[in-house]
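Workshop exercise sheet. Pairs work together: one partner reads the sequence aloud, the other fills in the structure field after running the prediction. Swap roles for the next sheet.
Pair: D.N. / O.F.
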Amino acid sequence: MRLAIAGLRKAFDATLALAGVDLSVAPGEVHAVLGENGAGKSTLMGVLAGAVARDAGEITLDDKPYAPRSPREARELGVAIVHQELSLCLHLTVAENILLGVEPARGGVIDRRRSLELVTAALARIDAGVAPDDRVGELPPAKQQLVEIARTVATGLPRVLILDEPTSSLGAADAAKLFALVRELRAAGVSILYVSHFLEEVMALCDRYTVLRDGASVGAGAIAEVKLDALITQMAGRNVERLFSRSRRAPGDVVLEVRSLSGRRAPIDASLKLHRGEVLGVSGLVGSGRTELLRAIFGLDPVVRGEVRVAAWTGPRAPRDALDRGVGLLSEDRKREGLALNRSVAENITLSALPRLVSARAQHAAAEARVKQLGIRVADVDAPVARLSGGNQQKVALARLLHHDVDVLLLDEPTRGIDVRSKSEIYATIDALAARGKSVLVVSSWLPELLGLCDRIAVMRRGSLGVARPTEDWTEESLLREALGA
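Structure field:
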């Protein structure tokens, strides 16, 4: 067996993160690690990657004891990880990031020619579409994800590769490149631990699975022998209700209107009308300008031409203007833009509307109400938001918009990297907001999400936004064809 884990346990103070994990992976196997946010997946991956020390349990790698004391030692032993929350140096180039810490040298000096050869080969292997001298901080999240993946194969194949939500930032085309690489590595004998909330990917790509719940292994087996509903039930510990919520909605007057909007790079030409009580979806490939459209509407990115109208008001010139007029944005990048990681849950929920609260007690009460409303798993609203799982962090970011009581919600990839039950809860929240007369504009790379959630959908291609049509006029195939211009 390539990797074997038995009775793995880890506690952080009074919180038991791993309560007995058993898992085994053979050479050349793609093994799915499944579970809801907070199930212990990230802690398990941290132990394997050498970033977290275990309290108890045994791990062997190719039948030898495995206990790395650092990520570098884990990598030297043949275990590499691609984190969901990227660990890149944004001020460095693509090449510098890929070879950081493992630069080839000759006579104590970095071998620039060999470095370029290694980086070029790694980028070509996954068709990343970036240049070695590109600045990583200037790349979109999808391209940054591909750089992180290229780093794991640049200087030789690992024995075990851990992929933590590797497609959460990727569109269909880039995800297909990743899947091709995974199959190539599997054929070369690499063992792959594949952590994902996209169960359709798991069913298509993986050989075996292990389900974690509350820090313990609760199920394992062959993917070919399990049904999707059974996996969801094992993850949640109960049957999950119908994923998408769709109340009877009767959209009203136009609340937000965008007219021939153009930014510095994108959008190039975008017009739309969002009605009261409507959920309007925007589809399109990664890089098509969807995120830039929301940022321009919210005032984060400059507008070169066109206008944004909220009721009778034209703007915004800055995000504060948008918030003052009842428009809120949920960023796709919750770590850098969506949350203040060094602040508490209560502060993150209430900061944008803090003047409305007259005391710390009122702030706590407001935060606790939103925590209860969204089912955020946290023992105390004074806890740092950085300690929460990805799904719960996403709920905190959404809770801030609810606390601010905005009328128009701009949601950019609202369920990126979160589990099935959390997705279902967020969908129910969006549906309830629309039923109350709120207006929601959703950007998503996951087509079933748009088809299940929205009243109308428009497709963005190369910076231009097409005409929004009723959701029943679309299929996954027609949305993809429109995005590709086929």
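Discussion prompt: The chain has a mean pLDDT of 87. What would you look at next?
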